[in-house]
Design a protein that fits this description.
With 306 residues, the chain is an alpha+beta fold. It has 3 domains: 5-84, no CATH class; 119-215, no CATH class; 251-302. Helix content is 51%, strand content 7%. It contains 14 helices and 4 strands. It has helices spanning 5-16, 32-42, 47-53, 62-73, 78-84, 94-105, 119-132, 140-149, 189-205, 220-226, 232-248, 251-259, 266-276, 280-289, and strands at residues 154-158, 169-174, 177-183, 212-214. The longest helix is centred in the middle third of the chain and has 17 residues, at 189-205.
Length: 306
């Protein structure tokens, strides 16, 4: 999904002025009905959590609460929010996830120069991650952060809000800097690497300022069947999924694994993990996506929390 940060910033400047140091600089509302409508929308943000963090003043109400939230999010209207944080809209909790992303944006400095991705270097680093993380059961996130930072990509972690299910990953641009954001909570190694490679897929395959929010994964069969009827933004997600799948485990490797016919045995997973230099949890997850292994298989213990 694409967002126009210049338009969003322009809307913010229009609403709050170029020097928006005070909440009172926000515009007034036409009538009580308009204010109440916006208040209903604003109250879906994690207000209390943001107040505890100091991002929203305590004890603000009504119009002042709207202005405080708009200022924190740097939006001038609901339409501006829907434009800038469009990746959150398909979710059931867009305000919560957008606030989570906003916390990440505040951690990342804008680049003074234009970012031009070096495709070959990025692909090389992804392949390094696939191989290198095979030998490390710990520090996968730090290894990934260092490898991507060498390519100009920021990988950050932000504690998720409790008012919505924990997201898997977000990808967005902070000015001209690409950012991949994960929650601080642990997840399976296969899920982490798949989400990471999916985010990089957007960077390499799609227009600048494309953004995405990963909340869960469809089965591989469902992804393929939906490709024909998908909306344009869904096709972007499917393309990024395919990119991640191919980097983590090539089609030839997947065929070799399935053709062995004994992939439900631990020694088979261990063997091909060594042959392909890929984490065994990734093999188990791929077989589950293809319907070859039950989701409740004992082989799930190959998946390590990272």
């Amino acid at each position: 999904m694409e967002r126009n940060s210049d338009d969003a910033q322009a809307a913010f400047q229009l609403a709050f002025g170029s020097d928006s140091g005070r909440i009172s600089e926000a515009p007034s509302f036409k009538n009580e009905e308009e204010l109440e409508k916006i208040l209903m929308w604003v109250r879906k943000f994690p207000i209390r959590a943001l107040q505890k963090m100091g991002h929203i003043p305590e004890n603000v109400k009504d119009a002042d609460l709207v202005r405080a939230v708009f200022k924190f999010m740097q939006i001038g209207s609901i339409a501006g929010f829907e434009n800038y944080y469009c990746a959150t809209l398909p979710s059931a909790n867009p305000q919560t996830y957008a606030a989570w992303i906003r916390l990440g944006e505040l951690q990342v400095k804008r680049l003074a120069t234009e970012f031009t991705p070096d495709r070959n270097a990025i692909i090389s680093n992804l392949k390094f991650l696939r191989t290198n993380t095979f030998f490390h059961n710990k520090d996968i996130r730090n290894i990934s952060r260092e490898a991507l930072h060498a390519c100009g990509i920021e990988l950050i972690e932000v504690e998720p809000f409790l008012t919505a299910p924990t997201p898997i990953c977000a990808f967005y641009w902070r000015g001209s800097r690409p950012v991949i954001q994960f929650p601080t909570t642990k997840m399976e190694d296969s899920k982490f690497l798949d989400a990471l490679f999916h985010a990089v897929g957007h960077l390499l395959l799609h227009a600048k300022h494309t953004s995405c929010l990963q909340l869960g994964a469809l089965s591989q069969q469902a992804k393929i069947s939906e490709m024909h009827a998908a909306r344009p933004e869904e096709i972007l997600e499917l393309e990024a999924d395919r990119f991640a799948q191919d980097i983590l485990l090539s089609e030839a490797e997947e065929c070799e694994l399935i053709c062995c016919g004994r992939f439900n045995e631990r020694r088979c997973i261990q063997h091909f993990s060594g042959v392909f230099h890929v984490r065994p949890g990734i093999l188990v997850e791929r077989l589950q996506q293809q319907g070859k292994l039950n989701r409740r298989t004992l082989l799930n213990d190959f998946k390590i929390a990272v």
